[in-house]
Amino acid sequence: MKSFKEIPGSIVAPQGFLTSGVFCDIKRLGTGKGSNKGQKRDLALIVSEVPATVAGMFTTNQVCAAPVKVCAERVKKGAARAIVANSGNANACTGKQGLNDAREMTAFVAAVYDRRKLKIKIPPAVTDRRYSISAEHVLVGSTGRIGVALPMANVRAGINEAVTLLDNSPASAAHAMEAIMTSDTRPKQIAVEFKLSGKTARVGGICKGAGMIQPGMSATGKRPAALHATMLCFITTDAAIDPEMLQAALQAAVVQSFNRITVDGDMSTNDTVLVLANGLAGNRKFGVRSSEFGIFQAALGHVCLELAKMIVRDGEGVHRVVTVRVNGAKTVQDADAAARAVANSPLVKTSWHGGDPNWGRIMCALGYSPANVAENQVDIGYSAPGGKQILWSLKRGQPTKARFKQLCAAVSPKEFDLHINLNLGKASAVIYAADLTEAYVDFNKGDVGDPTTLGG
Amino acid sequence: MKSFKEIPGSIVAPQGFLTSGVFCDIKRLGTGKGSNKGQKRDLALIVSEVPATVAGMFTTNQVCAAPVKVCAERVKKGAARAIVANSGNANACTGKQGLNDAREMTAFVAAVYDRRKLKIKIPPAVTDRRYSISAEHVLVGSTGRIGVALPMANVRAGINEAVTLLDNSPASAAHAMEAIMTSDTRPKQIAVEFKLSGKTARVGGICKGAGMIQPGMSATGKRPAALHATMLCFITTDAAIDPEMLQAALQAAVVQSFNRITVDGDMSTNDTVLVLANGLAGNRKFGVRSSEFGIFQAALGHVCLELAKMIVRDGEGVHRVVTVRVNGAKTVQDADAAARAVANSPLVKTSWHGGDPNWGRIMCALGYSPANVAENQVDIGYSAPGGKQILWSLKRGQPTKARFKQLCAAVSPKEFDLHINLNLGKASAVIYAADLTEAYVDFNKGDVGDPTTLGG
After folding, report:
1. Do A367 and B227 touch (CB under 8 A)?
2. Which residues constitute the domain of residue B372?
3. Bridge partners of A58?
4. Which member of B366, B367, B438 has the closest CB to residue A441?
5. Catalytic residue among B60, B94, B182, B230
6. Domain of B226: which CATH number?
7. What ipTM goes with this model?
8. Is-contact A11 A203, C-beta < 8 A?
9. pLDDT tens column, B138-187
10. Phi and psi based region of residue B88 (left: phi greater than 0; alpha: psi -120 to 50; beta: remaining)
11. Of B345, B339, B372, whose CA–CA distance to A213 is shortest?
12. Cβ contacts of residue A317 below 8 Å, gap of 6+?
C-alpha cells in the first residue's frame, strides 16, 4: 500500500507557499513593458512565507548556464526562501554579464519583496521583518535561447509585477507553470499528501521540458555514471526536514526519475531541480533511518517520477513513449549503458515511430553499446506499461514463435514497455524514452530568420 | 604534388580482377529463380585471376554478423582469391545456421569456379589447376535484413550465374556495385593509378552504405578509441605487397576514413572493408619505411576517404554534409569525443538541416561530451569544404561581430566545414557528418507490413 496519495494542485498545495507568473517579454527583447498582451507568461516566482530548507540537482554539462552556477553555490548552504525563473532566455554562454544578471534577478526579488504591497491577507508572522528575504536566499532558473543577454529592464518589470501578484491560488500556480514552459504543449504538475508523525504534509511540483532532454544531474557537478533536458522542476513541501536529508532524498529521487529519461539524448546547459521545505506541516524532525524518511522519500520519488514521465510524453514531436527495461546485465553500468544505447538509437527510435517490432535494430544497438552483451543470450519482449505479461519476440538470441501481427499489436499503443534480458548477471536499469518523428526534426530545424539560438 | 592520379573505373581497373553482379532474389525469399526480371541485382562476385594477399577491417559491434566472423578468421591468414557479397539479407543474428550459410557461400563459389564455363578469354595461367580456388580463400560480405536465414537455394543459383558472367568489363563492375546497394541512391566507386618501382599499379574500390552508419572497425575485434554503418567496401589492387604491410596500410586508411564518418551514429553489425592485392603490376616488394609504402598508403588512403565521403553524401535523407574539424583539444581522445558529440547531436543535426548557424546547440553538445571543454575558450566558425578562410561565429566563448546573414550564408551550401577550436591543447580530429532530416525519419519508420527487420 502506498504511504501517500495524489491530490489536486501543485506547488501551492503545501502550506505557506505563494506564487505568480507574468508576461514581461523576455524573448522578444523589449517590445513589452510588463503588461500581458495575451502573450504566454515568461517569468515565474515562488516564495515560501517562512524560512525553508533547500536542496537542488543541476546539469553536469560543462557548459552550464549562469543561473545554474548561482544556484549550485547557494543550495550548498541549505536555506532558501524563493525561486525566480524565466523562459525565453537560458542565460547560458553569456559570460560575466550573465552571472551578474542572474545575481541581480535574485537581489531584485529580495528588494521588491521587502517593499511589496500585499494584495492578500497572509499570516502576521510573514510581515515580520524577520521574514524579509535576503538575496542569498533567492534561487534562479532560466530556459530558452542560449548566448543572448537577458533584457534586464523587462526582467525587473516582470519581477515587480510578479511580487505584487503573489498568492496561493491554483490560478497563480497555473500562471507560474505557464511561465516556465517553452516548447511544452501541456502543463506538468502534481501534488501528493501523506502523514508524518501524525501531521498532514504535502509535496507539490511543476516542471517543464520537451527537447534537449537527457538530464544527468548531480548536486556537486560531478557526473553520475549515466548522463545527459532543458528541464526545470520546482518542488515545494511543508514537511519539516533538515537540508542534508532533503538533499539525500532529492538525489535519490532524481537519479530514479529525471536522470532516467531521454527525448533526444541532448543534455542541456540548464537542467535544474529545486525543492523548498518550509516545515509548516509541523511534523517532528526525523532521521535517515526512520520510517518517516521512507515515507517522505516515497512521496518525493513519486512526484519526480511522474513529472519526469510527463516530460517524455510531451517531448518534441513525440508520438510514442517506451519504457526500456534492461535486466540480467553484469553490472548496473552495463544495464544503464545498454538501455541508453537502445533508447537513443535513431534507428530504434524511428522503428518505434513506425510501430515496427524491429528486434534487429535493438540487437545492433545493444551490440555497439559499451555493455557486455552475448548475442545468443539476449531476450527481447514487450508488455503494457508496467505489465507483467511479456510477449517475447526473441529468446536467447532466437526468434520466438510469436506471430508478427501480435508483435505489431504490442508496439502499436501510445505507451509500452520494452523488456531486454541480457542473461549475463543480475543488474537492471530503466530508461523512459521516446520515438523519433518527422515532427521532432521539423520543429528543431529552427527559425532561421531569427538571429538567436534556442537551447538551454 | 600527389603521388597518384584518379582514373575512371573501379575494382576492375587493376589488372587480373574479374567481377559480376546478378539478381537472385535474396530479399523476397524465393519468388525468383536467379533470372533477372528487372529487379536490382543482389549478389556480387569479385575474383582475382591469380593468388592474392588480403587485408580486412570489420565492425567492432559485439553483435556481429556471420560473414564478418568468417572473414575475420580467414583474413588473418593473409591470402585470398575471391569475395562473394549479397544485399537484402545481413545474415546477422542467425546463429549457427548463419555461420553454416556464410561458409557454404564461400565453398559454393570455390566449387562452381573450378568447373566454370568461361565466356571470356583469360590468360592461360588461370586455367591452370594451381589457380583453382579453395573455399578458405573466398571471403563473404552481407548487408540487409537482420535475423532472417539466407534463402540458400537462391544464393546458390545466384553464385552459379555470377561465376558464368565473370569478366573485367566496366559493365560487370557496375553490376557488382549495384548488387551490394541497399538504400543507396547512387553507386560509389573510384580508381587511382600510381608508379611503384617503375611499374604502373592501380587501386580500385566500390562501397555501399547509407544508414546505420558510424563505423568503428578494427582488424582484431578490439574496439578503437572511437566507435561506431552497414558499410561494405571492396578494394582491389594489382600492387605486389605483403599481407602484413597491406593490413597496416588498410588500418591506417580506414581509421582516417570510414571510422571518421557518421550518418546516424548507429554502428552496424556488418561493417566490412576488404582489400585484395594480386601483384600483377609486377613492382618489387617494398618495406614499411620505403617511399613505395608511402605512395601505396597515399593511394589507398585516398580511395578509402573518397568512398567514405560518398557514403555520407548519399546517407539516408541527407541534405547537407558537414565536416566537423576539432582543433586545440587536450588529447586525441578529447578531440574525437568532442567532434562525435557535435556530429551526433540531434539538435545540432536538425539545425544543419534548417540552415541555422546555431552555436548554442554546438556549445551544449561540446559541454556534455566526455572531452575537456572550457566555455570561455571555445572558438566556432565555418568555411567552404577544405577552405582556409574561416568565418568565426564565436571566439573564446564570445559571439564575434560576424553578421547573422553572413553566418546563414556560410551554412547554406550542401557541404561546409565546421571549425571548433577548444584552445586547450594541440590535438585534433575530423568527423564527416550529415544533417538529420524528416526524410531520414520517414525512410526508417519502416515497412510495418513486412515481417522482417532491416539493418546490418
Report:
1. no
2. 321-436
3. A218, A272
4. B438
5. B230
6. 3.60.70.12
7. 0.81
8. no
9. 999 999 888 889 999 999 999 999 999 999 999 999 999 999 998 888 99
10. left
11. B345
12. A436, A437, A438, A439, A440, A441, A442, A443
